[in-house]
Specification:
Chain lengths: 100, 487
């Protein structure tokens, strides 16, 4: 497999432990092999089928309807400050790269 | 006051008694809760069971208000949103999640007078074929307690087959309603893609998912369908199937009815790898149908061999996208966002909350969609999807495709789960209709020893009504429906 587990972890936003990693690496290699069967099909002039139904884009009436309440969201979020939901920080410092 | 034991009766019979008789309804519900009390600790079909006082109160109210479903309880798979009632998807990452809204299908059932009795066990995020990947532990097959009930809607099937609930909602992405229905001798129905609204169904693979029904027989599926179909403004992929009057036709079909002279078509490649004893039971069911006037022929569609890898490529890819939302500090498992930078935060929470199968699928799905591999796997799978659809629709225009629902007997607990390819191979029959958007059912073909065997019947898109009627004909001719295991 020509992609590292580390790269897959980053793509999937996951972080695995040592044993998990080894087991998964083996499974993934096997499964990709299984997927490669698709190379046997003649697909030269075939268009991909993204949607199985022919319904075009539909819109609904532009009417307000009850949504999720602020109370529910603030009650559910881990940390709320001044009515803002706090998320983890996105600026992580010059010494760390987020992308390879 | 007369006492009637309505346990083991399908909903269409129960309704005859309980409409206008809240006392009989209360007795029925008490018996259900007694059974839950007695069998749940072994079977583990439920993740959450609502308190009996609440359920009985709501049911009696619906009954007194003269609602059509008169307080009939329904079990709901735990990936279908129920307002105020915990909805976990069988995952640690949502183990305390309480949705603020009902799924459209749930809302419609409630409006018709049904009451949610509990949330059923499932493979985590519907990823699995045995209900063994559930964070809450596996369910057991009431027909053989050492074996799985199938999956991913295993709990829903357990509830119906052991009569802890007269019917269940499940979900079906690659067979997850039909698989457990086959393994528990119940009726399973996956609609045409779009026939049931997906609003409130927690997404696994959006182009494949459908809510489905697991019931005691096909008549109950026809009955419930009337209340839940219909276009939904909240789901732009929903379609408008008209079903009024259809339940009556299903109900009145009997021994004396002229059965439709339908054509049954077996695709050779779908029968490769089917175990010998399963093959025998399913063929004997088909023989009975042929004796009653159905025609049968065999055709070859070599491209069917690629349905399974195409399905899994698409399912993993879509799952990786749909599950990207978990880990945010707003719902589900969360930690203090102050402590870690964003990528470490999300990776940590997600790794804590997801089980191994889910992680595997998300990682593979991300890989499939990543730059450089998108054409190699994902686009190819979408092309195979079109090829399959183009090849199969002509058959579905002239008849119904039949196969065993499952190629193997229900595995013993722990047997299937270790080898991913072996696990995925269980889906070989059931992924086909999901890929092409067709409706499909599983009816009881018979038994091998004491283990149920299902016959899968696939119909043309939007042909759900006729398909369910064929299912009814099959039930009557083959002779198995409303089955109850000795627990």
């Amino acid at each position: 497999m020509d992609i590292t587990i580390e790269r897959l972890e980053r793509l999937a936003m996951l972080r695995l432990g040592g044993d998990e990693r080894n087991a998964l690496a083996k499974d993934i290699a096997e499964i990709l092999d299984f997927f490669r069967q698709l190379d046997e099909v003649e697909l030269e002039n075939v268009e991909p089928l993204f949607h199985v139904i022919e319904k075009g884009a539909t819109v609904r009436e532009d009417m307000t309807r009850p949504g999720i309440s602020r109370e529910w969201v603030e009650g559910s979020a881990y940390r709320v400050v001044d009515g803002y939901i706090v998320g983890p920080r996105t600026i992580v410092g010059e010494e760390r790269e987020s992308h390879q | 006051m007369r006492s009637v034991n309505l346990i083991n009766r399908p909903i269409h019979e129960v309704l005859e008694y309980i409409r206008g008789s809240p006392e009989l309804l209360i007795e029925y519900l008490y018996r259900l809760y007694e059974r839950i009390e007695r069998y749940e600790k072994i079977l583990r079909g439920f993740i959450t069971i609502r308190p009996s006082e609440e359920v009985i109160r709501e049911a009696v109210e619906a009954n007194r208000e003269g609602k059509a479903l008169a307080g009939i309880p329904i079990a709901v798979k735990d990936n279908i949103s129920t307002a105020g009632l915990r909805t976990t998807c069988g995952s640690a990452i949502l183990k305390d999640y309480i949705p603020p809204y009902d799924a459209t299908v749930v809302e419609r059932l409630k409006r018709a007078g049904s009451v949610v009795i509990g949330k059923t066990n499932m493979d985590e995020f519907a990823m699995g074929s045995t209900t063994e990947t559930s964070f809450f532990g596996p369910s057991r097959n009431p027909w053989d307690l050492s074996r799985v009930p199938g999956g991913s809607s295993g709990g829903s099937a357990v509830a119906v087959s052991a009569y802890l609930s007269p019917a269940s909602l499940g979900s079906d992405t690659g067979g997850s309603v039909r698989n457990p229905a086959a393994y528990t001798a119940t009726f399973g129905y996956k609609p045409t893609y779009g026939v049931l609204s997906r609003y409130g169904l927690i997404a696994y693979a959006s182009s494949l998912d459908q809510i489905g029904l697991i019931t005691r027989d096909s008549v109950d599926a026809a009955l419930l369908l009337e209340y839940i179909v219909g276009e939904d403004p909240m789901d732009p992929t929903s379609l408008d199937l008209k079903v009024s009057g259809f339940y009556r036709i299903a109900l009145n079909m009997g021994e004396k009815t002229d059965f439709p002279n339908a054509s049954l078509i077996a695709i050779k490649e779908m029968w490769e790898g089917v175990e010998e004893d399963i093959y025998k039971v399913v063929m004997s069911a088909i023989d009975k149908l042929v004796s009653s006037g159905f025609s049968y022929d065999e055709v070859s569609v070599p491209e069917i061999r690629y349905a399974l890898p195409a399905y899994y490529v698409l399912a993993f890819a879509e799952a990786s996208s749909n599950l990207a939302r978990y880990g945010i500090p707003i719902y589900g498992l969360k930690e203090d966002p102050m402590n870690l930078p964003w990528d470490e935060y999300y990776s940590k929470v997600r790794s804590m909350g997801f089980g191994r199968e889910v992680k595997r699928r998300i990682m593979l799905g991300s890989y499939i969609l990543s730059a450089g591999y998108y054409e190699q796997y994902y686009l190819k799978a979408l092309k195979v999807r079109r090829v399959l659809r183009d090849k199969l629709l002509p058959f579905l225009r002239r008849g119904y495709i039949v196969s065993p629902t499952m190629p193997v007997k229900p595995p013993r607990l722990g047997e299937a789960i270790e080898d991913p390819i072996k696990l995925y191979a269980m889906d070989i029959e059931t992924v086909v209709p999901n890929l092409i958007g067709s409706p499909a059912i599983s009816v009881v073909a018979g038994f091998t020893g004491s283990l149920p065997v299902g016959l899968q019947i696939i119909g043309p898109p939007m042909g759900d009504k006729d398909l369910i009627l064929i299912g009814r004909a099959a039930e009557i001719i083959v002779g198995y429906y409303n089955m109850s295991p000795q627990i």
